[in-house]
Specification:
Strand order of the largest sheet: 3-4-6-5
CATH architecture of one domain: 2-Layer Sandwich
Structural class: alpha+beta
Order of helices and strands: EEHEHEHEE
Number of helices: 3
CATH topology of one domain: Translation Initiation Factor IF3
């Protein structure tokens, strides 16, 4: 995370706290990424959470593609962030970006 602008990120209750500038930079970096995890028609299963955790460990910045409606995607994002301690950087359409 040393290449992020401004002060270093802090950790509160296991969740990384990023400044708005750091979030903006990470979202910019994520534009170039392909989704590493796909949440399909079966929803947010335990297997998807395991794959998501592994992707966070390997890459730290992870793009996720959803096959669900907008409200369901919001719920999935909150659940994924809470389950892994990742920060949800934002969503556009059926794609979300997380950082840990």
């Amino acid at each position: 995370m040393s290449n992020l602008p401004g002060k270093p990120a802090s950790t509160v209750n296991g969740e990384t706290r990023l400044t708005p500038a750091q979030k903006r930079q990470l979202r910019g970096q994520a534009q170039l990424l392909n989704p590493l995890v796909t949440v399909g028609k079966n929803g947010l299963t335990q297997r998807v959470l395991i794959e998501f955790e592994a992707a966070l460990l390997r890459h730290h910045l992870v793009k996720v593609r959803f096959n669900a409606e907008r409200n369901t995607i919001k719920t999935y994002c909150r659940t994924m962030a809470a389950h892994t301690g990742a920060t949800h950087l934002g969503s556009v359409g059926k794609t979300a970006v997380f950082y840990r």
